[in-house]
Design a protein that fits this description.
mainly alpha
Length: about 100
């Protein structure tokens, strides 16, 4: 029950914090949190490894879902970061060949 309470409080806190961040800072903040999401993947893999040694099928499904969702988060963060950095690259003109 305590873990559910912590999860709900963390959700409310996350929504409150994100709503206070200006829209210009969302992409740089997301690219900065990719390392944290990488740690989440390691934690999800560890939790799934422990769940595989128990008989709980729900634990296995939740662990697999955690790995998939954390991986999608990391890949999406890197794609958005690459797109953001692409906006700052200089574009070559048709006549210029360097």
């Amino acid at each position: 029950m305590l873990l559910v309470f912590v999860f709900v409080i963390a959700g409310f806190l996350g929504v409150e914090l994100i709503s206070k961040v200006p829209s210009q800072l969302h992409t740089p903040l997301m690219s900065g949190t990719n390392a944290i999401s990488g740690i989440t993947i390691v934690g999800a893999i560890s939790a799934t490894a422990v769940a595989l040694h128990t008989d709980g099928m729900v634990s296995n499904i939740c662990g697999f879902a955690a790995i998939v969702l954390a991986t999608i988060n990391v890949i999406g963060g890197y794609l958005v970061t690459d797109r953001m950095l692409g906006m700052f690259r200089s574009k070559e003109k048709k006549g210029d060949k360097k």
